[in-house]
Amino acid sequence: MLLTNPAIEKSSVALSSSAPILDLQPTMEVTLEEVRTMILYLRRARARAIEIRDRSPAGSYMVSVLDRTIDGITLELSQLDYLLARKPVDTEKIASKRHRMRPAI
């Protein structure tokens, strides 16, 4: 599984839009176990943020910041869950399906 490096991703925003974004962002190898560890960490961080938000005074600035933080963590968790559930593409099957059709007359 390949993930982009967020430190370099921020610097790529200033690049021109004509360059392909996927070619510019370096990737790093991440194992399945590392992704599961990230998910566990994010779930614990979200649970802690929810606990803090529940003890904060209603309508305070901290509640609004924690709401946005919890929403962001939830989004990241859903994306990581999607990556884990997604099966790798089998390129041999795709190539064989393309050649099975008859040529057009």
Set out the fold topology.
Elements: E1 2-4, H1 6-11, H2 21-24, E2 27-29, H3 32-55, H4 61-85, H5 91-98
Antiparallel strand pairs: 1-2
Helix pairs in contact: 3-4
Written description of the protein model:
It is a single chain. The protein is mainly alpha-helical. It has a domain at 23-85: Methane Monooxygenase Hydroxylase, Chain G, domain 1. It contains five helices and two strands; from the N terminus they run E-H-H-E-H-H-H. The chain has helices spanning 6-11, 21-24, 32-55, 61-85, 91-98, and strands spanning 2-4, 27-29. The longest helix has 25 residues, at 61-85.
Short description:
This protein is mainly alpha-helical and 105 residues long. The protein has 5 helices and 2 strands, in the order E-H-H-E-H-H-H.
Mean of residue pLDDT?
75
What is the CATH class designation of the domain at 23-85? Mainly Alpha
Low-pLDDT runs of 5+ residues are: 8-16
What percentage of the residues does DSSP assign to strands (E)? Answer: 5-15%
Profile the largest sheet. Answer: 2 strands, antiparallel
CATH topology of the domain at 23-85: the name is Methane Monooxygenase Hydroxylase, Chain G, domain 1
The helix tally amounts to 5
Helical content, roughly? 55-70%
Summary keywords:
105 residues, mainly alpha, Methane Monooxygenase Hydroxylase, Chain G, domain 1, 6% strand
